[in-house]
Specification:
The structure holds two protein chains of two kinds. By secondary structure, chain A is mainly β. Chain A contains no helices and eight strands. Chain A is elongated. Classes of the chains: A mainly beta, B alpha+beta. Chains A and B meet through strand 5 and strand 6 of A and strand 6 and strand 7 of B. Strand 6 of chain A pairs antiparallel with strand 7 of chain B, so a sheet runs across the interface.
């Protein structure tokens, strides 16, 4: 079970630049570490993260093994209209997680 | 076996000689693959070239914040801020971060647009060694700007506990 934490201000003024924080639990196994029997653990990372605001893409990140475990991103967006921000993470071994947050713009 | 314990001189010497061989063998094995698993400054240049192409990369406009002395390379706070009005005509298209000595030269590639409002991002990265980290910003007019930080890492990420 994947846990994701999303921090989006629930209310914002129109045109205001808001800060979005996201954190998802994931090992981000880089593929260069050995397990306790000395065998190399295969790579298992999140490779892509996309944030959409009412369906329109506003932020995209391509992740490499150099991203720390439990990938954390902070970015900004202009509060244009009330609606939904959706967050999607995809990665190795068919990993996929989707979260969303509502925002009211006045 | 117990009877051999009665000859401390010879068995002790034997043990020490064997131990020296084993230790020497381990040292050899651990040195060789360790060296090849790292990226090099040349690999970083190649990875940057893939993104930038032939365009010149100028210093400025980009401010990267990394602690200069890092105790634990497993999770290092990284922030990148790019000076830009972030309007429909003039905005930051992408921010790419590279490093010199992790196993791979790429760290993260971020796509932004005018809707970001500000070109400020933060994340947490892994650093395997004391090295140079470079952030490159791609502007909507096709120009590239960069900033670099030299960091000292005490406890390395990625390679600890790797195959000896």
């Amino acid at each position: 079970m994947t846990r994701a934490l999303i921090n989006v201000p629930p209310k914002a003024k129109r045109g205001e630049v808001i800060e979005v924080k996201t954190l998802i639990s994931h090992e981000m196994e880089p593929g260069y570490r050995a397990d306790n029997t000395g065998k190399l653990k295969p790579r298992d990372i999140i490779t892509d993260f996309v944030c959409k605001y009412n369906g329109e893409e506003i932020f995209r990140a391509q992740l490499f093994p150099a991203i720390a475990a439990n990938p954390f991103f902070v970015f900004t967006t202009v509060a244009t209209e009330s609606g939904k921000l959706t967050f999607e993470w995809t990665g190795d071994n068919g990993f996929s997680a989707i979260e969303s947050a509502d925002i009211t713009v006045e | 076996m117990l009877e051999q314990g009665g000859l401390p001189h010879s068995t002790r010497r034997r043990f020490l000689v064997d131990a020296a061989w084993v230790a020497g063998g381990l040292a050899l094995v651990s040195v060789v693959p360790g060296g090849s698993a790292r990226a090099t400054p040349a690999m970083m240049q190649a990875a940057m070239k893939k993104v930038v192409g032939e365009a010149p990369v100028r210093k400025g406009k980009v401010t990267m914040d990394l602690p200069p002395l890092i105790e634990n390379g497993n999770a290092v706070s990284l922030t990148v801020a790019v000076e830009s009005p972030m309007t429909a005509e003039d905005y930051v298209k992408a921010i790419h971060v590279f490093n010199e000595k992790n196993p791979q030269p790429n760290v993260v590639s971020i796509q932004l647009g005018p809707r970001a409002g500000k070109a400020n991002i933060a994340t947490r990265i892994r650093l395997a060694d004391s090295q140079k980290v470079v952030a490159v910003a791609e502007m909507s007019d096709g120009s590239f700007w960069s900033d670099e930080v030299e960091v000292v890492v005490t406890l390395a990420a990625c390679l600890e506990g790797s195959v000896p």
